Amino acid sequence: MDFLQVLISGILIGGIYALVSLGLSLLFGVIKIVNFAHGEFLMLAMFFSYWLYSAFLIDPYVSLLFVIPVSAIFGAIIYKVFIKGVLHASEMVHILTTVALSIVLQNLVLMFIGPNERAVQTVYGSSSIMIGDLSIGVTKLLAFVAAIIVTGALLIFLKKTFVGKAIMAVAQDKTAAQYVGINVNKIYLITFIIATVCVSIAGTMILPIYSISPHIGSYFVLIAFVVVVTGGLGNIYGVIPAGLLIGIVEAVSGYYLPVSLKEVIYFSIFLLVLIVRPSGLFGKIKGGAH
Amino acid sequence: MRRFIQPKYLLPLGVIIILLLSQVDDITIHNILILTLLYIGLSSAWNLLSGYTGSLSLGHAAFFGVGAYTSTILLIEFQVTPWIGMFVGAIMCVILALIIGLPSFRLKGPFFTLSSIAIAEILRIVAINWREVTNGSMGLRISFSEGPSNMVFSNSQTYIYLMLAYAFIVFITVYFIDKSKMGLYLKAVREEEDAATSIGINANRYKMISFIISALLTGIGGSLFVQFTLFAEPSSVFDINLSILIALAAILGGIGTLYGPVVGAIIIIPLSEILKSSLGASGFPGLHLVIYGVVLIVVIRWMPKGLYPTISSLIKNRNKKSQKTKIIKEV
After folding, report:
1. Interchain contact, A274 vs B287, CB within 8 Å
2. Fold of domain B11-262
């Protein structure tokens, strides 16, 4: 029974990791940039939601109504000001730009808000559902459900709508997409906004679970990299199984080994996947990432 | 006059200025000098890998930390002098570079960068948790027993000379590689790996050699650094911000150029030290990092070649222009 409990908490955590990683994977698949500032987007969404909670007593889940539009605008601004101008440049420039962006955002928050950890106190924060001997945290379950809904909605959007199909076309072949009249710049902007909104939803959904500090972004961005690489960089379908795998590995290894070693475990998985199978564990690469 | 604004004249001038400044009896100036010289070495070593081969490492703190911890543990536990310890540390770094490099050079672009970050992070976590050897996050303290054999000195001038020697050795190493055939091979690999391979350059072999030399020199820098601070802790020697600062200095000055890291370190290190000491205490803990980030964004966007190449091409152009006007006047 113990093991089942560990497995379930691993699956729930894994869902959260998948949700956090979704936007990163989409960006790499379509725009072909690795966004090192991804974790800072998550952190900013958490702080924004926290601010709504502490200033106006808006419940974190309700704050999604504000987080989604604000993060869309934020994503558009970041894309226009920082990303668009360097897209033609080399990969090294992409990496350095997003690394720099991450440093600036993280330390601006550190400067103005300070390094202290904060957490929201909700009535449901520590409650859990009992099924037999198994206990399932309500907040984790909700985050898991959100992961399924957001990923599902994104996949349907990409498959069924015109804009979604255009995004997939750009992901597969930018030049060919341009030939058939798709405005690649516009698609890039839309993709960047979607990715930012996805990660912001993730940030809001995990706010009742984790306490926040300016450094939480660097914690999650590393996990997101592990998940995205394991799932296949650029393959957004791989995010869910990879997230679950990492979550389960973390929970199981946390059960048998000291918790402090969990990062070493998944970094080792990360390096192993990079070296043995750089295209990821799950399926072939979609979107023509080389 | 303009003839003298050339590296071969500026370098001896720089050394003279450093020696003069070292005579000023001010601990802040000494600290800034020591760190600047250290970073000239570290950035030049980083540049040898990332600048010359194009494999962007943001995990050089891994080698810095391995060098720092190896010499410190040897000194504290086994009373081995750091003069030997730093070379043992360098050997550890070479082994680490081999372990990382053999599989990682198959990885291109962001994958290499990601794995470099991951390795530095793994080592940091190991250093925090392997308490029996590293004393965990408390760090290791080197006892202050002065003497050349312990590489512990009470006057900071000695450290300035030590770091000057380090910076000089790293610079000379990169200088000779830059001027050798290997330098050409590395640049060819960076510009067009497939083309370079097709004319018979073993790209991975030369990348590996520059990675090994880069790691070794960074490790020695780590050993020297802890002999100066007398303190090695995971959060400072394996810090990702250290990796970023090393890269930033080289990028600011001119990535992939011989003098770029020197110029970059001379600008960014004193600046960040002054900022840290004047603003850090007054309630802006992350300000110097915000400035690193802004500088990085501005430089890679508008001056991707860096300061040194941009300025030196400006001077060349002006020389040409002035020659032209001379000719016109003569005519």
Report:
1. no
2. ABC transporter involved in vitamin B12 uptake, BtuC (1.10.3470)
